[in-house]
Amino acid sequence: MLAKKFRLKKSEVSAVYKRGRGRNFGPIGVKIFANSLGFGRFSVVIPKSLVKNASDRNRLRRIIFTEIAKQKTSGDWVIRLFRLPDNETILRKKIAEIFQSV
Fold first, then answer.
1. Which residues, in sequence order, are bridge partners of residue 45?
2. Long-range own/partner contacts, residues 6-12 (CB < 8 A, 24 or more apart)
3. Per-residue pLDDT tens for 51-66?
4. pLDDT tens track for 19-46
5. Which DSSP string corresponds to the chain?
6. How far apart are CA 17 and CA 78, in angstroms?
7. What residue numbers bound the domain in which 35 lies?
8. How many domains does the chain have?
9. Tell me, what CATH number does 88's domain have?
10. What is the pTM of this model?
């Protein structure tokens, strides 16, 4: 899990949705908004309609946060899953691919 200073609050997530620029990477969508901090802050959104079980949603969040922790970036990021990848390895590769291309 990321430290609290690297995570976005709910009110900040809505601001990123309103003012951020977005891109889609297959099953994953990303909204990015510049911040004046020297580090990046993140939020991962996994809709309940996609994964019913809360423990499964939290497991996916932990996988994504683990991959995010390896990256050095700035700005406010909201990462949203639109559909489930086939397996965990594909999800990890997609997240790494997002940070290389943005």
1. 80
2. 6/39, 6/40, 6/41, 6/42, 7/41, 7/42, 7/43, 8/41, 8/42, 8/43, 8/76, 8/77, 8/78, 12/41, 12/43, 12/76
3. 999 999 999 999 999 9
4. 999 999 988 999 999 999 989 999 999 9
5. ---GGGB--HHHHHHHHHH-EEEEETTEEEEEE--SSSSEEEEEE--TTT---HHHHHHHHHHHHHHHHT----EEEEEEESS--SSHHHHHHHHHHHHHH-
6. 8
7. 4-101
8. 1
9. 3.30.230.10
10. 0.88
Measured in residues, the chain has a length of 102
Give CA–CA dist 40/44, Å, rounded.
13
Characterize the bridge pairing of strands 28-33 and 75-81. Answer: antiparallel
